[in-house]
Design goal:
alpha/beta, 2-enoyl-CoA Hydratase, Chain A, domain 1, globular
């Protein structure tokens, strides 16, 4: 499998920017910066996020982190253009059976998901500050955070069904514990957007601010409240809350990775990607 990113020096990342102590001495801000359009999640993001969270966990001065997005939108999710070379590796060259290809897909999915799992399993509590669009991988990311705040113009979408993929970075496992099974199913099966008011009503976000500056303020205020509490007690509280759902989420994530290993390289997925890039209506065949 192609290496998803060239490693940067410690503290230097292509997909995020880390700022420490700007608003509170024990709060860091991790800002998605792309490099894809609208903070798209390309190879750099998937490779770097485990290192980012490990770096924050290793810093004794960091007791909470705000995860935000640069610009008008939090993130458009998976950067299809940047990831296309990796996806193309999994297309069969001919009709010869090759089980190793499916194994490589499984390993690829599991490796990518470590970026999101690193947020959920980190010792550092996280508060997501969402403005504008939060699509696909963005939903995976914020569902792994402890707390989520949104701006009045924020919208949320589990969009993978629209690009021929079963969402496999954790949202299908985590969202039912946050917003319930009913809304999770509706979002995942339709790929539609919900607005900030709906997200607040269902508990996806716990606070809606007027604008992007306001949501950053509210997220930092909550992160500061967390950081001002005894760190060991915060850590213990998070571990207890997570223990009840860690097992089911792991099983869900492993199952969907196995599913996509068997079905990811489908004609419908390529049609979904092609129609998206060509801005036309998709024609699915169930193949």
């Amino acid at each position: 499998m192609t290496n998803p990113s060239t490693a940067a020096a410690p503290g230097e990342y292509a997909s995020v920017r880390i700022d420490r102590g700007a608003r509170h001495p024990h709060v860091a801000q991790v800002t998605l910066i792309g490099p894809g359009p609208n903070n798209g999640m390309g190879p750099d993001f998937w490779a770097e996020m485990p290192r980012v969270m490990a770096e924050l966990d290793a810093d004794p001065d960091v007791r909470a982190a705000v995860i935000a997005g640069q610009g008008r939108n939090f993130t458009y999710g998976l950067d299809l253009m940047a990831m296309m070379p990796q996806f193309m590796e999994f297309l069969p060259a001919d009709s010869t059976p090759d089980a190793s290809r499916n194994e490589r897909i499984l390993d690829f999915v599991e490796t990518m998901r470590q970026a999101v799992d690193a947020v959920a399993s980190a010792r550092t509590p996280t508060v997501a500050a969402v403005q504008g669009r939060c699509i696909g991988g963005g939903m995976d990311l914020i569902s792994a955070c402890d707390v989520r705040h949104g701006s009045a113009d924020s919208t949320y979408s589990v969009r993978e069904v629209k690009v021929g993929i079963v969402a496999d970075m954790g949202s299908l496992g985590r969202l039912p514990y946050i917003i319930g099974s009913g809304l999770t199913r509706e979002l995942a099966l339709t790929g539609r957007d919900i607005d900030a008011e709906t997200a607040l009503r269902y508990g996806l976000v716990t606070h809606v601010a007027e604008d992007a500056a306001g949501v950053l303020d509210s997220a930092h205020a909550t992160a500061a409240e967390i950081a001002d509490n005894p760190p060991l007690v915060v850590r213990g509280t998070r571990e207890v809350l997570g223990r009840a759902i860690d097992g089911p989420i792991y099983e869900s994530n492993r199952y969907v990775a196995t599913w996509n290993a068997g079905f990811l390289a489908s004609a419908d997925m390529m049609e979904a990607i092609g129609s998206t890039l060509e801005k036309r209506e998709a024609r699915y065949t169930g193949r």
